[in-house]
Amino acid sequence: MALRNQFIWFEKWISERQIYKYLVRDSGLSQSSLQRLFRHYLEQAPEVAIRSKVKAHLLIDATYFPNDLCLVLYYDHDIRYTQLYRITDQERYEQMREDLENLKVLGVDIASITCDGHKALLKAIRKVYPNVLIQRCLVHIKRQSQTWLTMCPKAPVAQELLRLSNRITHLKTYEQSNQWLADLYHWYERSKVYINEKAFNQDTGRFWYRHKMLHQTTSLIIKAIPNMFHYLDDPQIPYTTNRLESFFGHLKEKLEIHRGLRPQAKRNFIKWYLHFKNSGK
Predict the structure, then answer these.
(1) Which CATH number fits domain 56-136+240-279: 3.90.650.10, 3.40.718.10, 3.30.420.10, 3.20.20.150?
(2) What does the domain layout of the chain look like in residue ranges?
(3) How far, in Å, are 130, 195, 202 from residue 205 at the CA level?
(4) pTM higher than 0.85
(5) Distance, CA of 6 to CA of 278 (rounded, Å)
């Protein structure tokens, strides 16, 4: 069987929940032959081509795999296409700035970027695309608030903030967002003394916030407000990166099935997966 005719089995191995047992049955090839074939393809990987340059609404997010492997994705929400990606060890300012500069050099006109608010990414965006609209992922703000406050906080102040944060993903109109902002403002004015209460640590010689997680959550939400509601002005702007979370989840499922790959093969597996996902658009 010609190598190019065997490529379909490699694609199924990468993109579908196909294990060798079923590939052997359907292809007529032995497991050792399939393994040699797949190793051949995993020695290389395709490049990603820019597909659209017009008013892109990007989702930018990262996910982590075992052994310090990080995938940063630059995903075009409008055409459901990965315009660029980077496989690295963590989210680094210099690398993300370089990625955005490459998109700019290639002539990609970015209308908005929806992201989780990672400091290094925000810094890179402001450096390369200072005028682009940054939409903070509302689901991330809500989930982070739940994590820091817990789902059942004891303090009434924290309980009220949790209720406010849970409303974030349900704000669909200017009236709703304005009411939410007013409720947040009144809550803060009533609670700011408690939120910002400090104590002195004799061992470190420093002051610290008595209600650290409450203060941290409050700071997260207040700092995000300027970039929380751009989607109300332009319905094309996604207000969450959830599409990428689902994307990452499926990729991790595939890698878990084929666990045991060597580091470079694992990286190329990811690249092939992105290639096949793009090709299916």
Answers:
(1) 3.30.420.10
(2) 3-42, 56-136+240-279, 138-228
(3) 40, 21, 5
(4) yes
(5) 20
Cβ partners under 8 Å of residue 41, min gap 6: 7, 10, 272
Cβ proximity of 276 and 14 under 8 Å:
yes
More confident residue, 281 or 153: 153
pLDDT for 66-108, tens place per residue? 888 999 999 999 999 999 999 999 999 999 999 999 999 999 9
pLDDT digits (tens, 9 = 90+) for 230-239: 999 999 999 9
Secondary structure element (H or E) that encloses residue 207, with its range: strand 206-209
Please say whether the dihedral angle defined by the alpha carbons of residues 136, 65, 271 and 2, taken in this order, is positive or negative: negative
